[in-house]
Amino acid sequence: MIDTDAQIAYGIFWAAYAIAFVVFYFMMKKLFRFLPLYGFRTLLLAALVAFLLTPVESPEIAGWWIPAWLFGGYELILGDADNAGRALLNLGIGGVVMLLVWILDMVRYRLSQR
């Protein structure tokens, strides 16, 4: 069982991670503003969202979620290919979901241009 201090630290981590992501997202959105094609700009932002926000469940503690890129990177460095593969699978699923969202956004954009 996890104690209260660990639960609070877990909540603080996710709050700080979410705030940092929002700041980073808007910085990247301003940076990508200079790219000429709307579809390319939004594809890069969707890839950023999929890469940074896809979680994977911790194998040690049920119900605790970790950013997949961070978990997969650590496990790859430590040499645990099974857990690194699980993180890469989650990243792939997150990428496919964001690709579908991006396609729907492109359809919306195309229909609103007419």
Automatic annotation (TrEMBL):
Transmembrane segments: 6-26, 38-56, 87-104
The entry's keywords: Membrane, Transmembrane, Transmembrane helix
Protein's recorded name: Uncharacterized protein
Organism in which the protein naturally occurs: Marinobacter antarcticus
